[in-house]
Predict the structure.
Amino acid sequence: MDGKSISEHMESLDDAARQLGVRPLSEFFSADPAQLAEFMEGEGIEVGDTAPPALQQFTAQDGLATVRALASQAVAQADGVAQDLRECERILSAAARHEVGWHFEVDF
């Protein structure tokens, strides 16, 4: 999924999620530590002895709870957000059926 609209409205979506008592979307981000370290070094950021956190996988049910709760909120009516949330729900529904974990990842 593209997810640009979700990304552009992440702060508002997270605020709405907290008000609804569901996990904010930004808490579903994770990345491969080696790729993250490589990206950081490429950007001139000193990684040093601090290892990036391990890749996390989340349950599709947790993601679905957040996405479905947010779909009815005013922030979902922002440009493209509703479409991104529907696409995310479609993907997470498939992940739930197959009992596989997931995470959001930033495309470097």
User: Anything to note?
Assistant: The helical segments are 4-8, 10-20, 33-42, 60-71, 81-97. The mean pLDDT is 91.
